[in-house]
Write a structure and sequence with these properties.
By secondary structure, this protein is of the alpha/beta class. It is about 20% helix and about 25% strand. The longest helix has 13 residues, at about 90-105. The protein starts with 9 loop residues before the first strand and ends with a helix.
Length: about 190
Amino acid sequence: KGINFHPGQFAWISVGANPYMDREHPFSIASSAEKPDQISFTIKNLGDFSSTIPSLKTGEKVYLDGPYGSFSIDRHQHAKGFVFLAGGIGITPFRSTLRTIRDRKDTRPVWLFYANNEWKDVTFREELESIQSEINLHLIHVIRFPEDGYQGETGFITKQVLLSHLPADTTGLEFFICGPIPMMKAAE
């Protein structure tokens, strides 16, 4: 039947016959909070558990424990807009948030700075371009190792990159960050 959640939250996932297993794994919910009956996750094959996900069979039991977390725009109703700093698969909670903003017809501006090593690594590239035409989204890709002819930002999300795209006055904007630890430390 789905679960009610706020955009940006996560759930613990376990697979098997018993929902009370010792091993649960946290994953950000990637779907719109406005469609709680359509729960989706984005899971990158990076570890022991995530590498087993492709072998799951239709109908196999998967248990969700959640939602959890306070990484949500819903905690900032007063915000005049949002700035999202994402790296790699850290785009997942922002996917939920952008889909929710679209479904709510929220007109507040959003700046999404999305860092990846290479253009081919950009997850949800086509969906982000599509959402950009549906909401007030300023999408800024930052590619560390760009291919010849790439016209966007390169390297890392730096102060200069932010200053080049954000308004001079950021009063009232709420900032969110999700990605690899080195990227988050550098962006902070």
